[in-house]
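Friendly challenge for the regulars: who can give me the structure tokens for this chain first? No prize, just bragging rights.
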Amino acid sequence: MITVIFFKSFFCLLLLCLSFGQDTLTIMSYNALRFSSNNTARAQHFKKVINYINPDIVAFQEIEDQGGIDLLLSEVFNKNSQKYSSGPLSNSRDMENGVIYRNSKLDLISNKSISTDLRDISGFRFSIKNAAQNVSPFTVFSAHLKASTGSSNENRRWEEAKQLQYYVSQQDKNFRYILAGDLNLYGPNERAYKLLLDSMSVDLDDPIGGWVRDDNLNILKFTQSTRTYQIGDGGSTGGLDDRFDFILFSDHFTRTDPNLKFLENSYKVIGNDGNHFNRSIIDGANTSAPDEIIQSIYYASDHYPVVAKIVYTSKTTTSPIAHAGEDRDVQVGETIVLDASKSFDPNGSIASYQWIQLSGPNVFITNPNNVSASFTVPEVDISTTMSFKLTVVDNDGETASDQVNITISIRTGFTPYLIQLVSDKGIGDDCFPSKFAGQNLEVEGIVTATRPDEQYPNFFIQDPSKLEWAGIFVYVKSGYKPPPVGSNVLLMADVKEYYGLTELANISSTTILSANNKIEPVSINPKVLSGGCNFDGERYEGMLVSIDNVIVTGDKIDNNQFYVSDSLGNKIIVDQYLYEGNWPDLKKGTELKNISGIAHYGFNEYKIMPLNKDGITLSESTIVNPKSTELLIYPNPSKSVVNFKLDIDSYNKTLDKIEIVNIAGYLIANLNVNPQVEKITWSGKNLYEELAPSGVYFVRLKWGSNYKTQKFVLLR
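First reply, four minutes later:
Bragging rights claimed.
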């Protein structure tokens, strides 16, 4: 009897000593865009994203090979530690699914590869190391279902989902699982989606419910695409308008299991601020994450990362929860209170607080070790995000951190001059990039020219008070009616850089302040528009300018462009882009008294774009002295090799370089230059000795600071 009493007392004491709490796991799904061992540059962007989210389990899709998952593990997750491990890849015939998990919290018990007719569905079964005894193991499936619209593709997704259904049907009713991945579903009425949620022996729940594709009202649910322009990695460019990436939970997590459950309101699309419908993630301001994280999401993949949290009962005390407050927009001069009052410790109390500044203009933080700290918003001339980190320590010495972003919004009072004025050349394709790139601003200027095109009625505005740095290009899409030439307009638009061209895009409002304003062209030296990116040319980008006394030195080239030169050999492109009326057929040798139009830049070339016949004035006496064709391409189109016949005498200097580029402007091949040979042949192979695919290409000649580009076609 004494023994029994002692045992019961000991057992009760043991229960009192054990402290059961709750802890969380962050689950993440991420399409890695055909990630391989060759993607070391993109790995650095993935690293920033992963460090920012700090996930415990990441289900990856579009892993090319073992080298890809190894690179992610070594350079992204374990660069300075060994905190993470990876599960085995499946043997899919087209791209693979993988998983990387935090080994200090989780054990990988087993893995399962479910075969489909395209890509395997990869399952990884985990147990939680610090979980209480009544917390069950669970399985995370990573899936990448058939892409694209159409009934045949929908049927294939349905068939793939049925393979998962069959596997789940063989498990018992306590089978807890999560389905994460790029499911390529185009709406909640798809059979595959309905099967997953309503026809499984253990059904799945969608924490955020249905959606409508390409609908601004559902934008916070969308996960593709991060871009609107191709950046050379093959990613999609449709902008943010599709929900393809999901994290779905078996109903144990949402309804039945109090010890292992989905954390309400934890499901998020990282980088989606709800303001980028059909736009790139970097178009305009995006305060959902720090700027460098937004940039890294853009470059890492064409998909946004999706995260959700699960809560489980743990064997030990939980760490404190830090809450730094909600992100917000503020104004210069405001006193901002940093509030940590929502921080708490589930099994004790918060012993200390610490606020530090991570980014933005330095400010003095008052009471940085209190639950509430404050600072005064500094003066800035550009919208700026400041980041602050809160660290809390509980009475057991455990720590937790959280971050809050404070954005100083400066959006009004801008002219093209303020946006264009810059002294730093930039790097890569950048040509004197605006410091306002990525910001949404209100800009005032006079409309100087409009493109006569219904689909892309682009136009230019100019600051009438300035003679340099005064013009800017405005990019618009169909459906927008540009203001008439001469209008003084107020535009709300994004400032962007497009291959070295500063532009306004994504106009959200247009106000015409006055009409019939006149701006005279600024007379410039033809030299400033000759050659590639340079400071003198940049001063007049987007402005109405004029050049005098030039001669036509080249016949028409692509898109009805031709070359003119001054007496010193400075060569300028004349472009039809803005011209209204019949484009003049000017022969080589024709002397021109004057050309006036918009100075424009793109893809390392300046050009002048006349507005109409008044923009081209012939000299009183013209000299017509045609020479032989400078460049002959044959056969064109070609099915294999392409020949280029050059008139060497037409060039002032020996050729320095002959390049083949594709329609997107990417270098495909370099050809050997021989000044004594007029005929040069391209084998049709790229830099990697692979056959270039069918498409439109350009041969680009360079001698000194001069360029010539001409189009040809490959038909394989």
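Residues 328-408 form a domain with the Immunoglobulin-like fold (CATH 2.60.40.10). The first strand starts at residue 21 and ends at 35. Your move, everyone else.
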